Amino acid sequence: VLHDMGGDFVDHFSQLKTRTITRSHGTGGPLNGSRLCLFVLPSAVTFICVELLQTSTSLSPSLIKVLTIVVVALALLEPLFTNVLLLLGSLRSLCHSRVRGSALLFWLWWPIWRLLLPMAAIYFAFESGSFLYKHNLFPHLRLQQLQGYTDVDPSIATGKRLQDSGVVEFNSSAGVDRARSGCVRESGTYCVAPIVLGGVVQNTSTTHPQDLFVVGMDCCGCPGEFRCGAWNIPGALGGLRVLDTEKLPHYVNAAQEWGATYGKSVKRPLFYEWVADPLVAFNELGDQGVEMKMLLLLVGPIALLLVGFMLNLVMMLLCRLGLAAPVEKPVRTAGIGHMWANSKDKSYDSISSPQYVIL
Description:
This protein is an alpha+beta fold. Helix content is 49%, strand content 12%. It has seven helices and eight strands, in the order H-H-H-H-E-E-E-E-E-E-E-H-E-H-H. The protein starts with 8 loop residues before the first helix and ends in a 16-residue tail after the last helix.
């Protein structure tokens, strides 16, 4: 069974039912420029569709999942079915006729890659899209849905009052006590430092809970000085709310450890990424996500085209070395009527006898 790029399934089945393996008109050997582009096109379209779905902020997660399954099925069903038939046809040929390895490589090269290339496109689109959505697009969307606060006084504000906060700018009296930080080591060092009046934790007992913290990963001595975010940039203290559900439990543990160490009450802790200008940082988060999305949509298809070009070069090299070749041309027949047909076969001097054809 030899895969034609059009995918004639009826012809595949009819050939499987016969013992005589005959050559069909399929894709074999090096491809020219237009055929190479057509070969890569389905994988490029699949990459773009999966990337757009994984980075969508307007569709519901359940709809994205369903549409992704549909796209993957449409991309892989036909080449998967074709390769199954190719495998069955090759096994049948091995049982009932002589099979040459170079003919197998010549005729199976593109059908196999027609399955592997979209699989690779789906994998990289899913991974890159999920990473971009998790670290840029989704945090920006969540912060956009929350409230923005300015001139927040840490001596008055509590976690309960700022539960809906996303982008926060503290007043000039607020500061971070970097010397009295807290941390836990759980698959990484999770660091927290309190946002307090004057930037220094008071030793006096108070009923006011300490719920506001700036946080970061692997940026403190544990115990040691807190050096996360914009710690070395002078100016007003600002924060972007940390909403990562994987990190939040670790930060909560670090805040509780800090409260136990310094004898402070931590009731409803809120965690922020330390930024110099929260509004600018918020806009940059969204802009970076959009820019990276556009870049991926551009680079992905180009990368797939380059992979197709490299595969074509490899096939050309295999053919030149004789490691991949169709069957040899048939013996030329005598007579003027066959002269023109025989002259068309001059480029197939390396083809072997018809019983070696793999379809």
